[in-house]
Amino acid sequence: MEILEILFTASFWAAAIRIATPLILGTLGELICERAGVLNLGIEGIMVAGAFAGWMAVYSGTGLWMGVAVAMGVGMLFGLLHSILTVPFGLSQHVVGLGVTLLATSSTYYAYRLALPEVTSPPKITAFQPYEIPVLSDLPLVGPALFSQTPFTYLAFVLVLAVSLILFRTPLGLAVRAAGENPAAVAAQGLSVTAIRMGAVIVGSGFMAMGGAFLTMSAFDSFFFEMVNGRGWICIALVVFGSWMPGKALLGAVLFAAFDALQIRVQQTEFGADIPYQIFLMMPYILSILALILMSRRAQVPAALMVPFNKGER
Amino acid sequence: MGAGTDVVLRLDAITKRFGGLVANDAISLSLRKGEVIALLGENGAGKTTLMNILFGQYTADSGSVAVMGQTLPPGNSRAALEAGVGMVHQHFTLADNMSVQENITLGVDPLLAPGLNRAAARKRILDLAERFHLAVHPDARVGSLSVGERQRVEILKALYRDMKVLILDEPTAVLTPQETDDLFATLRQAVASGLSIIFISHKLHEVMAIAHRVVVLRHGRLVGEVATEDTDKSALSAMMMGGAEARAPEVSRTEPGRALMELRGVSTPNIGNAPGLKDVTLSLRAGQILGLAGVSGNGQAALAEVVGGQRKPGSGTLVLNDAPPTAWTPRDAVRRGIARIPEDRHKTGTISDFDLTENAILERYKGTPFSSHGWLNWRAARRFADEIIQKYDVRCPGADTRIRLLSGGNMQKLILGRVLEAAPQIILANQPVRGLDIGAVNYVHSQLLAARDRGAAVLLISEDLDEITRLSDVIHVISEGRLSPGFARGQKSPAELGIWMAGQGFADAS
Ligand SMILES: Nc1ncnc2c1ncn2[C@@H]1O[C@H](COP(=O)(O)OP(=O)(O)OP(=O)(O)O)[C@@H](O)[C@H]1O
Ligand SMILES: [Mg+2]
């Protein structure tokens, strides 16, 4: 069948990995926050802000990597705001998160208008270019799919590995996970729950912003408002799908992206031509919901997710 | 006495207020190397508060803490830990979804250290476990451990850090007598190697057995300090209660009435490693206390849930007032006059962030006098809460306090008041005096006896054989979900019951 053929083309998998990259970064960021016990619904807005900030930085003359750093810094600022309100002040994580999303989105809009008052169509930048990793990119199928991506994508994969190692192999990671399981246990061992949770939210938000920046600096070369288009919310589902494990979350992101890439291609086949295209647009979401239902039964939610902690209270 | 003369810890004039309540009033105390001090006091006397200040989890309003002559910065647990003070909290502070080893090593290495040396940590845990007879597997998930095993993990957490001073806040409240003996053996060994201990318990025989010196708190003030060898249990309880003598209530004999509830051949499936019931037959009679003895985790939970309506009998029948109930949910149980004193007052007894008033009407808010036409009557609710607070001597700032701020004992008194004021037909009392002071224990017991005397049926579940044998008119032993035949008051000695509890009589009986 045609669909099977599609699944064996390198360009299909290359597209899937490309589509997956912002999801991987966003999911990783959300996962760090949730592992420490904080739900960060600011993700959607932070991705928008990151997409704009990175692109704007490069447009105003910085290098590409500097642009990534600027995006991350902007994300971390929103993370700081989110964490001050949710951690020491213990405000509702739902309300604060949605508030941060609205704030980040609208302040991006404002900044855009301030920076480019006249333009009708947003300018382009020179985005990251694919880099073929020597030797590996010569492998059949896997080579062109995995090893001919932009450096930004490689960075995302490296970060997944790094976060995994930190979470499960270092004292810091142990403390972050414990803060999400039982903050009282963390406090009883003389650590500051507030510092750990705030740190996790700030770093996690930086990753989310990088996910946004990938869209303007690698996937495309310009900025549009509808660009993020609900990817932040997908990331929140992917964290559950991945059972709060970075590796599984990455697989989830690639799977979702593969459905997305597949539906575009199936639309163009003969078989696809007879079916309304909206059906295809729905497909990745429907399949994700099904996968979520199957996977989330066994998922281990951090026990203290969304439970505020106040020292000196019982 | 194993106590040397060098002071390791000194508390100086510690004062702590919560709003208008003075939880600690200028308390000074010193602890010597190799010494065990027992801290004694009624519920809400301020023991936990004092220990939390010492451990840096609360900040004192005034006063200071010094370890080995060095004053500790206030409100800093890390500094306390680094100075060698460890604390086992009244409620476990363990992450259930993590392994024993992860719980023990959490926060020990500097956070930014590059990696975890798991092999070395594991070896150290195994060494300590062997040396102090604290058998527990480093890879086990804490959530799968029994209460006794969790307690061992808590102790290992402290030993792992090479403590000089160990604070144990009611470590024995949830342990079986056997586990308590094991714990004491471990502690004696640790003390012999130079550790100093502050030990909190409401059980005077434990205090007499383990402590060199006893310090008594009352209403936040230090009211007495004696060497264990110069005192005895009754002197201690008098000191604790401000001169009043603790007197266990008289138990009279009564004639049991008709059966209010019967279980006939009831079985329930096992849940995880908690056994279900196996062909259990018993009857709860009016004017009778039925004592259920047994080591916890042998089916008591399943029985309590069947009686309380949280679980339906898998097979067999439940008979209520001579007929099986048509529906059996907790709501039906409450409506049919069954009142519950649950085992876990935090999880299934109260809602922590509700205030006392809301918690007082939790089981009866639907209906007079607490609501009419779907509207709550807060004035009636408040009056009811105030009445319980007064009658049952619940120590608290007021009925609008969130219940999580109460000391454990006072929380239990509120639950007891809520239960007894409803004048229930059947009372399900599951470990009703766990963590209570002697005065409160006697009070709870006298209230259960009074309820019996007015014709209620009481099901008393307890691990404490003294409590069971003193109060119960008839005793059953439960072991792995099986129920022994009923023994009349005085028919079996505690030693004989102990044999049944170990699961032995059953083979002979069947
Ligand atoms: N964080 C807090 N906020 C308000 N009140 C508190 C707080 N912690 C303790 N209290 C109050 O201080 C008093 C002393 O409580 P504490 O827990 O020290 O008693 P305790 O002696 O340990 O009692 P128990 O034997 O029941 O454990 C109690 O009246 C309690 O309600
Ligand atoms: Mg206490």
Annotated CATH topology of chain A: ABC transporter involved in vitamin B12 uptake, BtuC
**Which oligomeric state applies?**
heterodimer
Q: Would you tell me the structural class of the helices and strands of chain B?
A: alpha/beta
Radius of gyration of chain A: 20 Å
Examine the secondary-structure arrangement and name the CATH architecture of the largest domain in chain B: 3-Layer(aba) Sandwich
Number of domains of chain B: 3
Beta-strand level of the residues of chain A, as a percent range? under 5%
Give the N-terminus to C-terminus distance of chain B in angstroms. Answer: 51 Å
At CATH level 2, the architecture of chain A is Orthogonal Bundle
Secondary-structure element order of chain A, as H and E?
A: HHHHHHHHHHHHHH
Please count the beta strands of chain B (DSSP E, at least 2 residues each): 22
In short:
With about 325 residues, chain A is mainly α.
What would you note in describing this structure?
- The complex is a heterodimer of chains A (314) and B (510).
- Chain A is mainly α and 314 residues long.
- Chain A has a single domain (2-115, 139-295), classed as ABC transporter involved in vitamin B12 uptake, BtuC (Orthogonal Bundle), CATH 1.10.3470.
- In chain A, 70% of the residues lie in helices and 0% in strands.
- Chain A has helices at residues 2-7, 10-35, 43-59, 64-86, 93-115, 142-146, 151-169, 171-181, 183-188, 193-219, 231-241, 246-267, 270-273, 277-296.
- In chain A, α11 (231-241) crosses α12.
- Chain A is globular.
- The termini of chain A are far apart.
- Chain B has three domains: 7-241, Rossmann fold, CATH 3.40.50; 247-337 and 425-510, P-loop containing nucleotide triphosphate hydrolases (Rossmann fold, 3-Layer(aba) Sandwich); 343-423, no CATH class.
- With 510 residues, chain B is an alpha/beta fold.
- In chain B, β7 (165-169), α6 (177-192) and β8 (196-200) form a beta-alpha-beta unit.
- In chain B, α13 packs across α14 and α14 runs parallel beside α15.
- Classes of the chains: A mainly alpha (314), B alpha/beta (510).
- The interface between A and B is medium-sized, with 25 and 37 residues.
- The complex binds adenosine-5'-triphosphate and magnesium ion.
- Magnesium ion is lined by residues 47-48, 90, 169, 407 of chain B.
